[in-house]
């Protein structure tokens, strides 16, 4: 799970131009990073590629509002 978090930190830091160590599991995409729907689509595409999880369905995305939500989602998706 820590590995997933660190990989997500790198993706988010690159995409949102923030320092990796500023990103926590509580970091909210919209509130803390100012993400809009285009940013979130790009983030999901990066997650799909980085973790080789195939295409994420739109229904699966509704509960992903923080970095921790994504880490939990990926952990379940990868059966870790």
Structure description:
With 80 residues, the chain is an all-alpha fold. The protein contains 5 helices and no strands. Helix 1 crosses helix 5 (67-77). The model has no long low-confidence stretch (mean pLDDT 94).
Q: Rg from C-alpha positions?
A: 11 Å
- List segments where confidence is low: pLDDT < 50 over at least 5 consecutive residues: none
Strand content: under 5%
* Arithmetic mean of pLDDT: 94
Structural class: mainly alpha
Shape designation: globular
Largest sheet: none
What are the defining features of this structure?
single chain; 80 residues; mainly alpha; globular
Describe the protein's topology:
Elements (H helix, E strand, L loop, with lengths): L1 H15 L12 H5 L3 H15 L6 H4 L5 H11 L3
What does this entry show, briefly?
The chain is 62% helix and 0% strand. The protein contains 5 helices and no strands.
